[in-house]
DNA sequence: ATGGCCAATATGATTGGA
């Protein structure tokens, strides 16, 4: 079974690329971020025609997450617990019935947090604390669990082409990386790092300053696997070539292959 | 050469992204 995550930077602007990539990669489950689209306007039909169930949680203009699944949704729960007043559409948990039992996953879009000296960074850190709390509770279920999405965290110096350029950025500050480590150390496996030696691979290249042409990339889109999901990990990778397509997102798809059968859909 | 982009909005300038 193949599970992927992709920050598409507007679902409406990226439908052609999304369909092309799905056709090429045939993922069973896709977590999307930055759909930038209210649920009523989400382009469900072309995706349903490709055989996916669609669960979207969006808002006007910014943020927005979704999950596409060839398998049935048993539960779909928007919003990260822990702060009722947080109205950003950045998180959706889904429980999915696969041929090999139940799989719980979250499609998440962690706050950017820049500039660091503002309440935006405080919001990022508070959001990470809430994510840690959520993850701790879910790990206690001892089930296959996957946290997938745009974490807006560069975990280590191996995850940026030029780490020096990111030293004072909210994506790479020591406090940010410390929180990410605290999350991972609950028992998650960073699937791409487990499968690929660094430095790289990267998942984001800025539109500006010829970042793609110079390979000035960073790795900020991650798939974190619970021990029970890690037991099934076969392969992981990044579809870098998608960044070279016409009208690309600034992020590319990241995927894992799990040894769960997809028998009954 | 240290700057260069892209998407959404009651839009022609601003905000957010990273």
Features:
DNA-binding; 6-stranded mixed beta sheet; single chain; 6 helices; 265 residues; Deoxyribonuclease I, Chain A; alpha+beta; 14 strands; globular
Short structural description:
The mean pLDDT is 96. The chain is 22% helix and 28% strand.
Describe the structure.
The chain has 265 residues and is of the alpha+beta class. The chain has one domain (2-258): Deoxyribonuclease I, Chain A (4-Layer Sandwich), CATH 3.60.10.10. 22% of the residues lie in helices and 28% in strands. It has 6 helices and 14 strands. It has helices spanning 15-25, 44-49, 119-139, 174-184, 191-195, 227-230, and strands at 2-7, 29-33, 53-57, 65-69, 72-78, 91-98, 101-109, 145-150, 189-190, 204-205, 217-218, 221-225, 233-238, 254-258. It has a 6-stranded mixed sheet with strand order 3-4-2-1-14-13. A 6-stranded mixed sheet has the order 5-6-7-8-12-9. Helix 3 packs parallel to helix 4 (174-184). It is globular, with a radius of gyration of 17 Å. The model has no long low-confidence stretch (mean pLDDT 96).
Helix content: 10-25%
What summary fits the major beta sheet? 6 strands, mixed
CATH architecture classification name: 4-Layer Sandwich
CATH C-level: Alpha Beta
Radius of gyration: 17 Å
The proportion of residues in beta strands is 25-35%
Strand order of the largest sheet: 3-4-2-1-14-13
Count of extended strands = 14
Tell me the count of domains.
Answer: 1
Number of helical runs? 6
Topology (SSEs and partners):
Layout lengths: L1 E6 L7 H11 L3 E5 L10 H6 L3 E5 L7 E5 L2 E7 L12 E8 L2 E9 L9 H21 L5 E6 L23 H11 L4 E2 H5 L8 E2 L11 E2 L2 E5 L1 H4 L2 E6 L15 E5 L7
This protein binds one DNA strand of 18 nucleotides through loops.
